[in-house]
Amino acid sequence: MPKKAAKSVLLSILFITAVSAITLAAEQATSPSASPIAIGLKAVGAGLSLLGGTVGAGYALGATGAAGIAVISEKPEEFGRVLLFIGIAETPAIYGIAIAIVILFAI
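and the corresponding structure tokens:
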């Protein structure tokens, strides 16, 4: 496995573990006698999920958008296909927002 891929996998595992731990700790924030730390961890978990989603979408849109512009400049009839790929690249941000809402209001 190349170094860059190994680093990405390791960072992804670390990020998922951190968000999971914060979410589990934030579950205690729903009790009537919730501590301020639990409420703060709930906000941090929501922020991390939003951060991960938007950073991932930004990276994907940068790569997809650059390639899409190159394709459209050569074949303008491929605009619809490029638009579809750019829409697919935006989904991590939507999932990040949905998870942040779930963490803040449902847990």
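(Above: one complete record from the training split.) The chain has a mean pLDDT of 80.
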